[in-house]
Amino acid sequence: MRLSTYILRRVAMLVPVLLGVLVLIFVIAYVIPADPARAWAGPRARAEQVQALEERYHLNDPIYTQIGIYLKNVFLHFDLGVSPTTGRPVRDDLKAFFPATFELAMCAFFLAIALGIPLGVISALRRNRPTDHFSRVIALTGVSTPLFWSALLLQFLFYYKLGWLPAMGRSTIDITRYTGFVLIDSVLNWNWTAFGDAAIHMILPAATLAFYSMGYLVRITRGSMLEVLEAEYVITARAKGLPRKIVIYRHALKNAIIPPLTVLGVEFGWLLGGTVLLETIFAWPGMGRYAAGSIVMVDLPAVVGYTLVVAMIMLLSNLVVDILYSVIDPRIRVGGKRR
Amino acid sequence: MEARENLLVVDRLKTQFFTYGGVVEALDEVSFEIERGEIFGLVGESGCGKSVTATSILGLVAKPGKIVSGRVLLDGENLVGKSEQEMNRVRGSRIAMIFQDPTSSLNPLFRIGYQVAEPYIYHQRRAKRQALKDATGILAKTGLPDAVEKSRNYPHELSGGMRQRAMIAMSLTCEPDLLIADEPTTNLDVTIGRQILDLVKDLQREFGASVLWITHDMAVVAQMCDRVGVMYAGTIVEKTDVRTLFRNAKHPYTERLLRAIPSAVKSADKLEEIPGSVPQLIHPPTGCRFHPRCDHVMEICSRVKPLEQEVEPGHTVACHLFGREREGT
Amino acid sequence: MRIPGSMLFSSRYRLLQKRLHPITKEWGLTFYVLRHSMLAVVGGLIALAFLLIALFGSMLAPYDPISANIQDRFQPPSASHPLGTDTMGRDVMSRMLAGAQHSIKAGLIVLAIAVPLGVLLGGIAGLFGGWIDEVIMRVTDMFLAFPSLVLAMAFSAALGPSLFNAMIALSVVWWPMYARLVRGQALAVRETSYVEAARSRGASNWHIMFKHILPNCLSPILVTLTLDMGWVITAAASLSFLGFGAQPPIPEWGRMVSDGRIYMLRAWWMSVFPGLGIVLVVLGFNLLGDGIRDSLDPKLRRLTEVTWKREKTSSSSTD
User: Fold this and answer.
1) Optimal mutation site among A126, A127, A238, A247, interface B, most CBs of chain B within 10 A
2) Which of A163, A310, C5, C33 could be stapled to C319 by a disulfide with Cβ–Cβ 3.0 to 4.6 Å?
3) DSSP SS3 for C102
4) A288 - beta bridge partners?
5) How many CA atoms does the CB half-sphere of A216 hold within 13 Å?
């Protein structure tokens, strides 16, 4: 089928899935026995206060009513409710914290791709030589090291011991926020000191995230490249007398890049999950920290809002990956079915 | 002796694979010659080393294999030991190859027009647009209907026969002196296969190329080839022109091979099997590699490897039944 | 696998052997290749060591992992305390030995729930196809889009923070991968002639599932499972680190890293060693999983089969 049809179909698929996610989290929140209103009101609240909260948040209504109200708010008014702990609309909170997380995730993402895929390719080309072993060790270590520990270690090394990089926070210089992405904003402000400041703060958290993600990418790329290099169409290309570079980087690589590509969507989602951990350790003012805090306070609207946003991002990134996949591989378009 | 000159001389080619389990002696001093303009068939069972011979000629032996000794002379020039760059100038332009499975031998992500055009671009420095046009031209020559449209198709959008035509087109772009065809009809329907056979024959005549035709099918040999070499377990056991082969085969293996196919057998006789199985080439049989399965085996056969003997002009056999005893491994 | 016939003569055993034959006939070669891959062996040994520590750690620990011993607090690594002591004077090594079991339990809980669930759903989706397949796949997408860490945290916060609760939550989101795996296999196997022949003989769907689809999936499932073990352990440790998993004084390794965090400058060994332990264990499982995956690689198997068969025949016992 044509590319545009494929895209439309996939986008249409998003909606029921998103709805499903919403329903799911509501069900879970409903099933879990907890008394959120009491937690919100505080330990010294009087019964009427608790009751008022329950009324306001429809906690006593049957679940389908609750879901219905929420859905209506979300889709008609883009209203994610009000957080009982901060008192602010969840949407505003998330909007405030979203850029930090997204920026971090994107930086880590690009770092991982820029390092991981080339390393995987080189590893495959120089199979069993020192370069290969070196990168495999790095990849394996990266994949085996828990995020929180490597974050801690890197912090210890680069801040406490060496003093090269800051341990916490996102930036120390104030600039006018246009996009909320400090790196971009500092450029827009033409404030290069601010840019440097933001970049320095970004290095540790992004590198920590990238280290793990990169390991995975290297492994997948290497494996895929090795497989493709033995493929018959590569032999054909060589038998045609094509220059080695063309055979490797055009015929082989284009095929080999497909498995890593399909993984990228998952990887990005994983990165987002990892931000929860990292933001806690690096005191990064992002959604992850917000979510962690909200969970402790049983701040249902906040948690639901966060889940919705993250789910949305993950579904979108998977969609982008799928579209890229169908652009690269013409076989997919014809079938239309995702394998 | 030879009225025509030799285009390709394979001289005692020895290719081995150094694997985890041991050394696989895939080719054991294989020798044959292909004259200009002739179709030379290399026939044998699966695993006898026909494909390895082809890849060795082109210097494309898959790791962990390598050519251990021997020469491959193309117009007198030895290809063994040439650098990769030098070989790339030979591949695709002076020697071209078509493969058994056109589905997996074509890159699924590129249109076939582009894949056919590549030799034009890289060997003859044609501009891309011109190359694509020329590619369409040669595709049409192979009998591909609607060549202009089809050249914009991807491999998976075409049928097996069409893909094979594309492969043939791809190989003929630079008008090679030698075309190596590695069982191109094995994976195709019988009728399509016949078309391909006729096509190659026509094109060969038109371009004047020599062909090394690799197959396990004696019927194809009878149709296509001028001269034939019979391979068994990495060695050439018999070499002659096609007529003589069918009428007057000397080597025990060739005889049994002929008896095992329907077309060469009269309807009254049964099809015969060759007892035993193809040997493991990690530890090949000593002496003559066929001796464990041979009806006429003699004491010397397990000790000494038989060298090729000319039993009549243009007809050689490697068997102790014919010829004086010589020392060897 | 070759079992000396002299050991077991019962015909019932032979019947079992015959039944399992399609699954086990290739495993001899698998083990052989595995044995000869150094990295896989190393990984396997690490995993085994970890298992043993998890089982017997509490007994092996020289010091009490729970009770405090204030005068010995913040001891750097020494002969008497190879990994140092923590803020309460407890021996770090002992705590690690005693804490290993929690990580393994976490892994086992999650996988014991997720794998059967995923395999079942994937098998059904692939086998029946059509709208059942679509629905199950959409559900899979749903669960995959879920931020799993947050879900585990939420569960844990609501039900009461404990490793067990967190693991239940994780297993709820862990099954999709297995479902996808099995579904892919099911779709492929469904079209084969084996299945066609079986169906023409009136085989029921369950039969096809268990005799044709699942045996083919065993290998990739095994690989994924082994690799997953490492990931679940990491996830459990991460949750404990954040405070949503194991609670003090349980010496879960992630928890220990978190406890030692504020004392990094004073007593780095509190956080470094437990973390190092996690790295080692996950490394082991990754190596093992990689090794299994390689041993199932058809090319490698073909190359090794020659040596294996030769060794078998030269040292075979008579039946």
Assistant:
1) A238
2) C5
3) helix
4) none
5) 22
The pair of three-digit structure tokens given for residue A50, joined into one six-digit string: 């608790």
| Model confidence pLDDT, tens digit, residues A161-209 | 887 777 777 777 777 777 778 888 777 778 788 888 888 888 888 999 9
Show the tokens assigned to A34: 């907890």
Residue A11, min C-alpha distance to chain C (Å) = 13
CATH code for the part of the protein at B6-94+176-328: 3.40.50.300
- Concatenated DSSP letters for B154-208? -GGGS-HHHHHHHHHHHHHTT--SEEEEESTTTTS-HHHHHHHHHHHHHHHHHHT
Q: In terms of Cα–Cα distance, which of C223, C256, C157, B135 is closest to B126?
A: B135
Tokens standing for residue B59: 């210097």
Size of interface A-B (CB pairs under 8 A): 78
User: For residue B96, which phi and psi values (nearest 5 degrees)?
Assistant: -125, 160
Euclidean distance between CA atoms C102 and C33, whole angstroms: 32
Burial of B205-234, coded b for 16+ CB within 10 Å and e otherwise, reads eeeebbbbbbbbbbebbbbbbbbbbbbbbb
pTM above 0.90, yes or no: no
C154–A28 CB contact, under 8 Å: yes
β B178-182/B210-215 pair status: parallel
Residue whose structure tokens are 């199985």: B277
Tokens coding A244: 């080695």
- Over residues C208-263, the pLDDT tens digits come to 667 777 777 787 888 888 988 998 999 889 888 888 888 878 888 888 888 888 88
CA quadruple A40, A42, A46, A47: dihedral sign: positive
Asked if residue C87 lies in contact with residue C255, where contact means CB atoms within 8 angstroms, the answer is no
Which residue intervals of chain B are DSSP H helices?
A: 50-58, 84-90, 102-105, 112-123, 128-141, 147-150, 160-172, 190-207, 218-224, 242-248, 252-259
**What is the side-by-side order of every strand in the sheet holding B95-98?**
B95-98, B178-182, B210-215, B39-43, B227-232, B235-241, B315-318, B308-312
Q: What would the two tokens of residue C45 be?
A: 């040994």
Rounded Cα distance, C294 and C302, in Å: 12
CB interface of A with B, residues 320-339, below 8 Å: 328-331, 334
**What residues does each domain of chain B span?**
6-94+176-328
Percent of chain A with pLDDT over 90: 19
| Interchain proximity A232–B93, CB inside 8 Å | no
State the count of interchain CB pairs (< 8 A) between A and C: 134
Q: Among A16, A28, A311, whose Cβ lies nearest the Cβ of C138?
A: A16
Mean pLDDT across chain B: 85
Q: B20 and C304: CB-CB below 8 Å?
A: yes
Q: Which of B118, B154, B157 sits opposite A240 (nearest CB)?
A: B118
Q: Which residues of C, range 220-279, sit inside 8 Å of A by Cβ?
A: 230, 234, 237-238, 241-242, 244, 254, 257-258, 261, 264-265, 268, 271-272, 275, 278-279
Query: From the candidates A38, A133, A143, A149, which should be mutated to test the interface with C, based on the most C CB atoms within 10 A?
Result: A149
Q: Does A254 touch chain B (CB under 8 A)?
A: yes
Which chain B residues touch A246 with a CB distance below 8 Å? 122
d(CA C39, CA C41): 5
Distance from CA of A137 to the nearest CA of B (A): 23
Higher-confidence residue of C184 and A116: namely: A116
Ramachandran assignment for B115, one of left (phi > 0), alpha (psi -120 to 50 degrees), beta (any other): alpha
Residues in chain C: 319
pLDDT tens per residue, range A78-130: 777 777 777 788 888 888 888 889 999 999 999 999 999 999 999 999 888 88
The 3-state DSSP composition of chain C as helix, strand, coil percent (nearest 5) reads: 75, 0, 25
Residues with Cβ < 8 Å from C36, sequence gap 6 or more? Answer: C304
